[in-house]
Specification:
By secondary structure, this protein is mainly α. The protein is 72% helix and 0% strand. It is elongated.
Length: 139
């Protein structure tokens, strides 16, 4: 008897499949917003630029967010669960460090800390589900 691991299809019936989508769409939206309206986006993020040249950093952040969203979207659309899990887990560093940066810059700013911290917690839960065991088939 041969035993092999056959991954369960990952798709619309999986909670982790759908939990990635809000993060992907959100980061794409945020990236586009940083590109088009860096001053407004930086203020909403929780950091107020002091000079016009600092706005370039907002646009730099925007293009990196767009790349992150497109990369994860490609994995999601191709239903690549394992690759999505690794990329998504690595990306958790972003909301965690954003939360720390906001705290360092503004102190206790609950509304912004909760957005970044809540995103980090959501991503931890999603990552856990992505790495959860799938059914094994015995052939």
């Amino acid at each position: 008897m041969k035993t092999e691991h056959v991954p369960a299809p990952w798709g619309w019936q999986s909670a982790s499949y759908w939990m990635i989508l809000p993060i992907v769409l959100g980061i794409l939206f945020i990236g586009l917003r940083f590109m088009l309206a860096p001053q407004l986006s930086m203020n909403d993020f929780g950091i107020r630029p002091l000079t016009d040249s600092a706005l370039a950093y907002g646009r730099i952040k925007g293009i990196r967010d767009i790349f992150s969203g497109v990369a994860l979207l490609a994995l999601w659309l191709n239903r690549m669960k394992k690759a999505s899990a690794y990329v998504f887990t690595a990306a958790m560093i972003i909301p965690f460090t954003d939360c720390l940066l906001i705290y360092q810059q503004n102190g206790v700013d609950w509304s912004r800390l909760l957005v970044h911290g809540g995103t980090a917690v959501y991503m931890v839960i999603t990552s856990f589900l992505l790495f959860s065991n799938t059914k094994q088939a015995i052939a």
